[in-house]
Amino acid sequence: MASFLQRLVDPRKNFLARMHMKSVSNRLRRYGLRYDDLYDPLYDLDIKEALNRLPREIVDARNQRLKRAMDLSMKHEYLPDNLQAMQTPFRSYLQDILALVKRERAEREALGALPLYQRTIP
To answer: Which Gene3D superfamilies match (predicted)?
Structure first.
């Protein structure tokens, strides 16, 4: 069953998944965003911890992309076509550190240690 689901969401094997990935890519390129920029640190504390571990220049670049996207959205405009062509929406900068943070949290829970952060999200 798991291999069926993996084939279902793999863009290399499923036409609809490929179309969806292309659609998401086009929308992200219009505003100059990357897929990892869409993660909200207020929603998931693991993401907040992963962002805290990233180098400052990567976090600054992320914040700049988000500000530019909000500005373009408010003006009802898109990036110029030449800048859209240079965008890399699926180049990840957060996934490796996020996986490390999740593994550390799972290890702490397995050992019975206190979590790194204790906060409930409404």
So the answer is: Cytochrome b-c1 complex subunit 7
Of the candidates 43, 33, 96, 83, the one whose C-alpha atom is nearest the C-alpha of residue 63 is 33
- Is pTM beyond 0.90 here? no
Break the chain into its structural domains and give their ranges: 1-111
Q: How far apart are CA 34 and CA 65, in angstroms?
A: 8
Place of tokens 């240690």: 113
User: From CA 112, how far away is CA 18, in angstroms rounded?
Assistant: 42
For the cut 60, the answer to whether the pLDDT of residue 19 exceeds it is yes
Q: Determine whether domain 1-111 maps to CATH 1.10.1090.10.
A: yes
